[in-house]
Every structure is written in C-alpha cells, then in structure tokens.
What does this fold into?
Amino acid sequence: MSRRAGTLLACAGALGALAACGDGSALSPKGPSARDIAGLWWLMFWLGLAVYVFVVALLLVVLRRRGKAQEPVAATPGEGRALIWGAGVGMTTVVIVALVLVSYSVGGRIYDRRGTSGLQVEVIGYKFWWEVRYLGRSDAITANEIHIPTGRPVDLILTSRDVIHSFWVPELAGKLDLVPGVRHALRIQADRPGEFRGQCAEYCGVQHANMLLLVVAQPPDDFDAWLDRQGQPRQQPTDPLTQRGEEVFVRTPCGACHRVRGTTATADVGPDLTHFASRRTLGAGVRPNTRGHLGGWISDPQAIKPGNLMPPTKLAPDELLALLAYMESLT
Amino acid sequence: MTTTEDTRPSVQTADLDRAWATPPGFIGWLSNVNHKAIGFRFIVTAFIFLLIGGLQAALIRTQLIGPEQGFLGPDAYNQAFTLHGTTMMFLFAVPMIEGLAMYLVPMMIGSRDLPFPRLNAFGYWLYLFGGIFLYWSLFTGSVPDGGWFNYPPLSGPQFRPDTSIDFWLLGVTMTEIVGIVGALELVVCIARHRAPGMSLNRIPVFVWGVLVTSLMILFAFPPLVAGGLLLELDRKIGTHFYNPMAGGDPILWQHLFWIFGHPEVYIMLIPAVGMLATMVPAFTRRGIVGYPLVVVSLVAIGFISFGLWVHHMFAAGLPALAMAFFTAASMAIAIPSGVQVFALIATLWRGKLVWSTPLLYIVGFVLVFVLGGITGVMVASVAFDWQVHDTFFVVAHFHYVLIGGVVLPILGGLHYWFPKMTGRMLDERLGKIAFWLIFGGMNLTFFPQHILGFLGMPRRVYTFQSGLGWDFYNLVSTLGTYVTVAGFLVYTANMAINWSRGRPAGDNPWDAPGLEWATSSPAPAYNFAAGPTVSSLYPLWEPEGAAPRGQPGLLDELQGHRREIVGTTVLDAEAIEILELPGNSLWPLIAALAIVLFLFAVMIDSIVLGGIGLGAIVGSLACWLWTGSERTHE
It folds into this structure.
C-alpha cells in the first residue's frame, strides 16, 4: 500500500514538473544560462522527490502500525536515535552538501561566461516600460523589444530611472533587478531565432502586471540589418495623410513626451517611437500593435492600462486617422 | 492520575480569589492584567485577523481565477496583497504565537502569572490599536499598496507622497514594539519563574520554542524598527537614506527589512514546531523521542536563521561570494529542521496512536512542511533562485512552509488547548471535516503555483494574458482557495458552537502530561493554589507517589492575600525568592493610547498634537510606575 502511494506520489510530482516544460517556460531553455539552471532544477527535483517519497512512505508505515496499549511513559533516552541521526541529520546533510556543490558549480559556470561580448545593450526600467539602447550606437533606441543576434552572447546593462524593476526572460536566463543609481550586467544568449516573452518581476507599482517585454532573436545578418534601421531617423512621410499625421504628432501632447528622431519631437519621457511600426506590441506588451488597438490606446490608454503615465488624447476623427497612418509608416 | 499540586492548608483559596480578582464591569475588564485574560485577548484578536487575512486571500485568488479579470482592478488588488501579507505576518502569526505563549507558558511552567503583567496588558492594547491604525487607512482612501516589504523608492516620498505608507509604517512599528515587549516578558518568565524542580531538561518543548523565539525577537525586530524610522524620516523630514537620486541606497532597506524578515519566518516556526512536540505525547502515549536533540536543534535553527536573509536578495545584484555564503547557510538550516521532523516521526513510531483531531494536524504538518522545506532548499541555490525568485514558485514554497509549519500547528494547538481555555471540548467530527478541507484546499491552492512559476508568472500581478498556459493552474488554485475558506468556516463554527455548549472537558481531557493540565479548566486567575514542584519532563504521567510534594521552605511562605510568584534559578530552578506582582491598572491602556496619539500626530504633521502625545506618554508611564501593587486586604 505504502509503495503504491509512493509511486503515485512520484508520478504526480513528475507530471506536475513536466507540465511546467511548455513553451515560454524556464524549463524549455533556449539559451546556455537557462539551460544550466534547468539542468540544476532537474537534479534537485529528483533528489527532492526521493526525499519526499521517503518521508511519506515512512510516515505511512508508521501510521499504519498498531502500537500496543500501554501506560503512558516518557521516551527512554537514546531511542529513535538511529532515525533522527540517520535520516534527520545524515540524509539531510548528504543531500544539501551535494546540492551546495552543484549549485556553486552551476552559478560559477554562469558567472564565468561574463566578460566583454562586444554587444552591449542598455535596458532602463521606467514605470511601466523598458527603454532599450544599443551601446556604441547612440541613435539606436527602442522600447519593450530587444533584438539580439542568435548564437552570440549579449550583455544587458540594467538600470532604472524610478523604482526597482527586475528583468526576466525565463527561456533565456534568470532574473536580475534594475536598481536606480546602479548598473547591473546580465548576459543572455539565444541558440536559435525566436521570440521570447519576458516580464518585470519586481513589484513596481500599479501596472507591474503589464510591464512586459519581448526578446527577438534573429540570425546575425537580419539583426545587423534591423540595428542599422533602428539607428536611422524616422521614415520621411511621403503622402499628405502621413504628413498631416506627423504634424498632429508634433503639435499635440504626443510630442511633449515622445521622440521621433528626425522631427522636432525630442522628448524622452515616454518610449522612443522613431520605428514604432516595427514593434510587435504597444503599451509595453499590453496589446498587439495593430491599428485598432493603437487607436484605442491613443484615445484612452487609462482604460487599457490604468495608472500608466500616458494621458488620454482628445483628437478630431480625421486627426486620429492621420496620426494612425503616420504611426504605421514609422517602420 | 496524579497531580503535583500541594494542598497545604496554609494557602486559603478564598484569599487567593480575592487577591487575584478583577473588578467587575467594563472598567474592570479594561484594567485586567492577568496573563490568561491578556493571552486570550491576543488569541481571539489574532484569530480575527487570520480570518480577515484569509478573506483578502480569497479576493486575491478570485481576481486571478482567469485571464484579464475585472473583479478587483489593479489598485484594489495591490492593496489586497499588501494587507494580506502585512496582516498575516504582523497581526496574525506573531501575536497568535505570543498570545498562546502568554496564556500557556505560565501554566506549563507552574507559575501564577507573567512577571510584568502590566507590560503584558500594555502590549495587548498597543497591538489592538496598531491593527486598527493600519486598517483605519481603509476609511481614508489612501490604503497601503507597497507590498508587505515596502521597498523604496516605491514606498518613498517621491513615489508615494500620500499617507498610505505612513499608516503601514506606524501601524507595523506598533506591532513590532508589542513583539519586543512580549518577548522580554516571556524570556524573564521562562528564565526565572519555572516551578521548583523544572531544570532546563524538564522544560516542555513549546516553552523552549517560546524562549528561543523571544530571544530572536529581541535581535530581529529592532532592525525593522530602525529601518522603518529611517524610511519615515525620508518621508517626513526629507532625509535621503533610501533615495538613490540623492546618494541614498534603496538596497539598505532590503538588508534591514530581511535581517528582520528572515528570522521572522523562524520566529513563527520554532514555537509552532515546539507546540507539536508538546502535543504529540498525548496522542502517542509516549514522550517525545530525542528531546535533547529536538531542543538543541530548535536553538540551532534560531542561530542559523540570522544568517539567511540575503537569499531574499539573490536577484538584487549583490557580489557572488557573499551570496555563496548565504546559499550554504540557507541549506544548512535543513539539518535541524530535519531533526524536528524525524523526531516527530520517531515518536509516532514508538507510540500507540490516538486519532484525535490534533494528531491530524501533526501529520498534516509533516506532509506539508517537508514539501515546503524541500523547495526551500532548492531556492537557497543562487542560480536556481534567479529563475524562480519573485514568481509563483516562491509563493507556493513559502505558503507550504508557513501553512505547514505555522498555521496547521496553531490550528491543531487551538484545538488541543481549547478545552483548557474554555472548559469545553470541540466537536471531533467538525474538527476532522475542517482539517481535511483546509489540508486538501491548501494543497489544491498552492501545488499548481509551483508550475505557474516555471511558466513565467511573476508574483504580485493583478492580471495576466490568456494563451500563456496559465489559465488552468490559476483556476485550480482559486478553487482550492474556496475549499480552504470553507474549512476555516467549519473550524470557526466549531469553536463558536462549542464555546459554551461543548461537552465539559474536565481538568485533563487528553490525559496529557503537562503541568497546564494539573489545574482546572479554565484555570483560576492564579493558576495554582500552591506552587507545584516538578521532578520530570512529564509531571502528570509520574506514577503515584513518585512526584515529590512541595519542598518545605520557600513555597510555604507564598501568601494568599497578595499577588505573589516564586522566583527560581535559571539552570536548576531552585526556589530562591518570592516576588510580588502589581495588580490591575488602567495605566497601560492609557499609555498605549498616548503612543497612538503621538504617532497619529506624526502622520498628520501636527506639532501641537505631537507635544500633547509625548507629554501623555511620559505622564501615563509615571502614573503606571507610581501605582505599584494593590493591597487587597490588611
């Protein structure tokens, strides 16, 4: 009976653990750092499961015993010593010494990969979005979407302009805090092209839940092309509609907070929008970047992400249409 | 059954009744300083806060029942999890532990009262007012929403200029003072007022746990009081201790908070585990196996717990070598914890089991706490923690530890000592139903959260998008919460129904070995008419005649017409003196009110009111000390 219960328990645990291996999970690693940690997890999982099954099995055996009735007595000195020393002290010590050593070695391996990788990307946390700057390419500024070349380590330089945030893309690496006044370095690397979801992991205020980001890993050539493009000023509006849209952007509150390089809108309160149309999401991942969602976002961002810093913008219908066309032209 | 109580005719219970009486009426009730009255108030108040915190948990889980729900909204959700954590830690767990200790420890060690009864009453009032103060924020519209950890700069004046964080800081500081006051009292009581003969090796494990925890509180709470003071200075007079824009360091707060916050976990755990070890002999008919090891490992947990705090900061970018130390320490604490678990199992092994409800809670503890301990060893690994830190994996981990290691023992303990406190038995059938609902419900709630953590779900998010594979586990988790809530309703109903209508319990319904069962249920205000003496760890299980009667000498001099307790030596508990205790007084209540007035003045920036408050504090303390003992007759 107890063996069956133990097996059942082991299966339940393993099933639960396997369920955590789906896409987007820390257990479906797409880079060396996350892979090392996933390996560490599986080792700890099987060891932990063995210990738990042992304790439960022991408990079941003990509880099913029929002790004989007797006058209540104190325990005799030394009884149960084998169990307490053997299991409580001995087994626990062996398991944790093993885990400490393995943990040090995995941590060391992740640390050892530090050094200059060539590509450094500054990630700056704001309530509630991410600014992304490619160091050495002072014009390549974007937000909420980090493109990296595959197969190559990238060092993220993390800091914050307001409160503490935390950078976490489970498929690529563990998390690291963005602390105002301090710069932390986190190395990430993706083996193959793909899009990896991330999210702020340190409670940072009312919209902590919607501070999302995307890491896009591209083949090196595609990445270089993308980076070149991001470094350029905005796409000149060519048709009357987008020209009118740019006029609206610069004249209305949009330009008071956002920058579109190549125009007179140079504020840096909100995300840089020079190549906005090339991004997959808006509002730091809260909606897909489509015309309908963008219109809704501009008109009333507080309905979608209450508490974010962007105020609603009142525009005449034709102004809004022009602005939307302009935003869509910022590839 | 034998009792060690001495019934020498020289002690007149009529005298005792008069000396220890509480004046009638509401004023009398307010002036009561007896340890059982105060302990009971702590327990009831803390239980109410447990229910409030549980209600908040149900609100939190309802908001997360599925993707993009609008049940609470971001503001209310953030307030709910802030109040949930704050309530459970500061207003439920520590006060409940201290309340149980205040009620039970003097009886367990054969004393008539705690050594500083007025300080005790002062503690209760300040606790009650601190709790009310925190919850008063609900009526002002600026409810704390910075999390129970309140990291600056988010909690600093730049980002939270309203009074919400001040409500939190001042309310929590009051409960911290209460913790320190109670700890002082319990340390002195356990060190100096044990019954003659109760040498160190005859102290019940729960009392050991309370001693270790009290000493820990004395070292762990001041850092948070100091840290809170610095934050309040930042907020009120513009200092920049935590402001990075002016050269301050927000990480300093994290250190101060967790130097308190990690020992805090064990401050709750150690007496709870001690409670189990003290209850278990009644249900195994055999004393706890490996008593010296159990006690030594409790002390070891207390020491090691001060070297763990940085494991809450593994993602804060600290130096690698420093973090490596905390990995080893965090894992090492598994060894003394393992001793606790296997000593319990060994005791169950050697004994003849009596399947009453408290035993279910003891077994539940092993099943739940061990799982939480195993995931605890995992998150002690820096590299692994980088992935699961601040995710639902950690939420699952510490709820397994705290529900398994603190809540289940407390629920079992309340079930066990309810007859001593009320003179009535709880219903066994309802008790078992409540256990299974709570046990099943908590597993259903928290097990799926481990998986959510791996799937990328961070903590403290009020909403999530669908299509991430999170929906199902969140749904199961929320349904589990409802089952747990049902369990708590049954548990509470059981107590409400049997409070006055339960089967009469008699002195010792479990045939338990501890001294607290040697007196009537409920016990008279003075607990024991004559000071008991002790000759073993299980005085009530001693064969007839083996327990020596009270040694002639000092004990004979205990007077009936004054409130007197015996002072004994620290190691061997030899009676060396008789101390007189102060009587009932309203001054502790007035002193607590004066402190509330002063802190309220700080919050609304009123210098005049602050001056009045400060004067009232000094004045009430002077009167408190002036009015010493009452002479009931001469």
Summary: Chain B touches chain A through 97 residues (CB under 8 Å).
